Amino acid sequence: MADRSFQGLWAAVVGCLVASLVGCATMATGSNAVGPPPGPPTPAGGVPAAPVQVQVLQLNLCNSGIAACYTGRSTAEAAAVIRAETPDLVTLNEVCRDDVSTLQRALADVVPGGAVVSAFQAARDGRTGDAYRCRNGQQYGIGLVSRWPSMPGSSAGGGIYPAQDREDPEKRAWLCLDVAATPAVAVCTTHLAYTKREVAGAQCRYLFGTVIAEMRARDGAAPLVMGGDLNLGSGDSPDLKSCLPAGSALVDDGGEQHVVATPEFVVDSSKTIDLRGTTDHPGLLVTLAPQAGNRTP
C-alpha cells in the first residue's frame, strides 16, 4: 500500500518549467496541466445528462517495486482483465508511468475507433520535492485510461494534496479528466494516505469538497465518476461517509477501494475480480446507469 490544459503548447512548456522543482508529472494525450480540466457545454435545460451506461474498473497494482506486495506481474494481469472486460474507464493506483501506456494499449486492442486516451499523475517525493519514483526509475503514482477521447480543448488536471503525513515520503495526489462520452463525463482517481486515517480523511474532504466541488460548480459540469484506493474503510465507515457528497453512488470492494459517482448515476452492478496474487488488491468493476429522469436524450 506504498504507496494534474490548458491552452496551447506554450502553456504546457511554461507549466513544466515552473513545476520542475516539484516534478512536472501530469500527462494526458501529450499535454501537461495544473488544476481541474475545463467542463463541456451544458446541455439544453442546464442539467447535465448521464450517459446510458458507464463501466469503470478500479485497480491498485502495487507495482512500485518497493512494497512487499510487488510481484512484477500485476500489469500483465491487469491488461488481460481489461481485454476481457472492455471497461469504459480504468482508474489506476500504485503504478509506474509506463504501466499506464501499457494498459492504454490493452484497451485500444479491444475498443474500435482508436480513441483511447490515458493520463498520469506522479506522487511527490517529500525528501526531494521531485516526482516519486518506482524502483525502475520511472515516475510513480496514479493513472486514468478512457475508451473515449478527452474533451476538445481540455486535458488532465491533477495535483498534490495540501494535507500529508509528514512522516511518509510519498506525498499523495489526485487526477481528473473530462472525456467525450455521449454526453461528456468527468473521471477522477486518487490513492489516499494509508499511514494516518485522519490524513486520508482530510485528503478525501479536499478531493470532494474542493476539487470535485469546483468542477461541479463551473458552467457545464459533467457527471463525474471517481475510482480509487481511499483507505477509509468500506461504505459504512463514518470517516468515508463524512467526506462524500450527499446522494453519491458508492461501491467498495469490501476493503479500501471505492468507486463513487455523482447523483446523475446509480449503481447497476458490481463485482470484484481476482488478480491471481499479482497484487494485494482485487479489481473492482462497477457498471453505472443514469438516475431515473436523467437519461441521455
From TrEMBL:
<dbReference type="GO" id="GO:0004519">
    <property type="term" value="F:endonuclease activity"/>
</dbReference>
<protein>
    <submittedName>
        <fullName>Endonuclease/exonuclease/phosphatase family protein</fullName>
    </submittedName>
</protein>
<keyword id="KW-0540">Nuclease</keyword>
<feature type="signal peptide">
    <location>
        <begin position="1"/>
        <end position="27"/>
    </location>
</feature>
<dbReference type="InterPro" id="IPR036691">
    <property type="entry name" value="Endo/exonu/phosph_ase_sf"/>
</dbReference>
<keyword id="KW-0378">Hydrolase</keyword>
<keyword id="KW-0255">Endonuclease</keyword>
<dbReference type="Pfam" id="PF03372">
    <property type="entry name" value="Exo_endo_phos"/>
</dbReference>
<feature type="domain" description="Endonuclease/exonuclease/phosphatase">
    <location>
        <begin position="73"/>
        <end position="281"/>
    </location>
</feature>
<dbReference type="InterPro" id="IPR005135">
    <property type="entry name" value="Endo/exonuclease/phosphatase"/>
</dbReference>
<keyword id="KW-0732">Signal</keyword>
